[in-house]
Amino acid sequence: MLAGIVFQLSVIVVFSICAVEYMARFLRDAPIHAHPPRPRDPTAVVSRAEDTPRGTLRRELMVIVAAMGFSTTVLFIRWAIHSRFQPVMMH
């Protein structure tokens, strides 16, 4: 039982780190790859990364992000309550 709770918490922590990094990069308009990959055809024209528009953070997306943040917070609270009040089993 304890291993399952620890696994769940570790997955939530990794997800939270990835989600925060993604949102920070999205809001700062700083992608991981600042330049597009090289074309296979040397005569092909490649647009620069700053010429490619990124998506906007619409209201619908903000609602989804807020809901994910709320559910992650609730799962952290659930983990804290379960770990705090988990009865210790003696053999």
Description:
Helix content is 59%, strand content 0%. The model has no long low-confidence stretch (mean pLDDT 77). It has one domain (1-31, 56-91). The chain has 91 residues and is an all-alpha fold. α1 (2-28) packs antiparallel against α2. The chain has helices at 2-28, 59-85. The protein is built from two helices and no strands.
Low confidence ranges: none
Molecular shape:
elongated
Number of strands: 0
Radius of gyration: 21 Å
The average pLDDT score comes to 77
Task: State the main characteristics.
single chain, 91 residues, mainly alpha, 2 helices
List the helices and strands and how they pair.
Layout: H1 2-28, H2 59-85
Helix pairs in contact: 1-2
How do you describe this structure in short?
This protein is mostly helical and 91 residues long. Helix content is 59%, strand content 0%. It has one domain.
